[in-house]
């Protein structure tokens, strides 16, 4: 059994697709074991995306990620990191496969609706950024 962090980004909340994204997770047999809506400050967003601090899009990305509420979830299931990434599709929605969340709802390489951890080590760090153990209901 594996866990991963999923974020419905500010554009996903604004586009009113929270339920649609959750439906796709549950339809794939993934369990949501923690969830909350919150708004990141610019500083929070910079800490969360610190790995990208030298990338040209860092300032814009962290402005965007602090521009409105997000929904953060811990997903649990067998092979859930890979499954979630398959459901999301490629970072650039133009390259995402048909039927993926980003292909269906993203409008921009930055405003790409969802974030998902890219591996087991990242998942542990990203889950701990948003949730403590008492908030996760396995
Ligand atoms: P995410 O999977 O959350 O990881 C980093 C984010 O940076 C990515 O989704 C996009 O929102 C954003 N991003 C990645 N590449 C670019 C890019 N070339 N230009 C702008 N934003 C990007």
Automatic annotation (TrEMBL):
This is Nucleoside diphosphate kinase. Major role in the synthesis of nucleoside triphosphates other than ATP. The ATP gamma phosphate is transferred to the NDP beta phosphate via a ping-pong mechanism, using a phosphorylated active-site intermediate. GO terms for molecular function: ATP binding; metal ion binding; nucleoside diphosphate kinase activity. PANTHER family: NUCLEOSIDE DIPHOSPHATE KINASE. It is found in: Cytoplasm. GO terms for cellular component: cytoplasm. It catalyses: a ribonucleoside 5'-diphosphate + ATP = a ribonucleoside 5'-triphosphate + ADP; a 2'-deoxyribonucleoside 5'-diphosphate + ATP = a 2'-deoxyribonucleoside 5'-triphosphate + ADP. Homotetramer. Its cofactor is Mg(2+). Residues 1-138 form the Nucleoside diphosphate kinase-like domain. Its EC number is 2.7.4.6. ATP binds at residues 9, 57, 85, 91, 102, 112. Belongs to the NDK family. One of its GO terms (biological process) is CTP biosynthetic process. The active site is at 115 (pros-phosphohistidine intermediate). It comes from Desulforhabdus amnigena. The gene is ndk.
């Amino acid at each position: 059994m594996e866990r991963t962090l999923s974020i419905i980004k500010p554009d996903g909340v604004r586009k009113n697709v929270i339920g649609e994204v959750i439906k796709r997770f549950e339809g794939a047999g993934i369990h949501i074991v923690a969830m909350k809506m919150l708004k990141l400050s610019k500083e929070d967003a910079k800490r969360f995306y610190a790995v990208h601090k030298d990338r040209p899009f860092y300032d814009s990305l962290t402005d965007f990620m602090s521009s409105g509420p997000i929904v953060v979830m811990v997903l649990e299931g067998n092979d859930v990191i890979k499954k979630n990434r398959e459901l999301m599709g490629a970072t650039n929605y133009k390259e995402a496969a048909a039927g993926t969340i980003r292909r269906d709802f993203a409008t921009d390489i930055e405003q790409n609706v969802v974030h998902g951890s890219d591996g087991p080590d990242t998942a542990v760090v990203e889950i701990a950024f948003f949730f403590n153990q008492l908030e996760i209901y396995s």
